[in-house]
């Protein structure tokens, strides 16, 4: 089966040769077969008339914590009344997650994945991290793997009650890893004051690497610590949050292959200063945008909301923000097959209810995903 989408007003491909096309068309199977001027489009089995709308690659949400139960609306309300965010609520969600059935957890992930897909997100990374014991971390990852190949072992989210931090790190790098490694592609750690320090984070990531997992890290969300330099030292695919950066952190990221993944939904929902995207971009770092969807610090599944925040609050141009939310996320997941619409890419795309992709930031909060194709299939 082939599908021709024609009469595209603006086609953002993020392909170095194709660039952004106007009056364009694209032909897809489960991958992109052809893209170019509408007048030269080859025939296909089925045709969609985009009526002058813009088409973009599907969003790649490279950072999400979807396996959890319950929510923390009262904590959010308290924060908006002046309480600080400390990450302490992670233990509240841990208790609700441990108490939930597999069916409840699975239904929650399904709900959030569908909510994301409707808004144009065609790839999601999903982390564990609310089980914080061997059986609940392992089942979190088994459930995550039902929805994505981008599964991340985040046993080292925080130390749960009743165990000393160093003992917990031994568990995370030992028995827990034994039960989780088979279900995960990535290993992650929350490197932060109050969570895990740089030495503990190094132990967690190197243990994961030794078991074939690829490293990524939560770094410098609440304070400026050594997490960014550790990310670069270990060749992490991505350092996520990057809210508090020193000049040497920026240089380290710019001189490395580690993507700086910015999560402005977290700054919005914790009323914190936004990360300095402009300095990172001007220094030459690769920047991605993701939702950080989780019940505590950022309960949004909307990539277009994050993109709008990045444009308005972080001085990214609309084009930079769109790249970061698609191709940037793909880099952060080391996935050359997504985030762009070059020939051979996975046919993940969004026909917008708008004539240009600028509208994603220009019309914040408006649901602009008209038709979403995942692997070439309209959803
Ligand atoms: O990425 N920072 C650590 N983890 C999550 C928040 C988790 C929570 O508050 O439940 C984050 O923001
Ligand atoms: Fe996170």
UniProtKB/TrEMBL annotation:
Fe(3+) binds at residues 63, 65, 218, 292. Its EC number is 3.5.2.7. It is found in: Cytoplasm. It holds the Pfam family Amidohydro_1. One of its GO terms (cellular component) is cytoplasm. GO terms for molecular function: imidazolonepropionase activity; iron ion binding; zinc ion binding. N-formimidoyl-L-glutamate binds at residues 130, 294, 296. Catalyzes the hydrolytic cleavage of the carbon-nitrogen bond in imidazolone-5-propanoate to yield N-formimidoyl-L-glutamate. It is the third step in the universal histidine degradation pathway. This is Imidazolonepropionase. It comes from Allocatelliglobosispora scoriae.
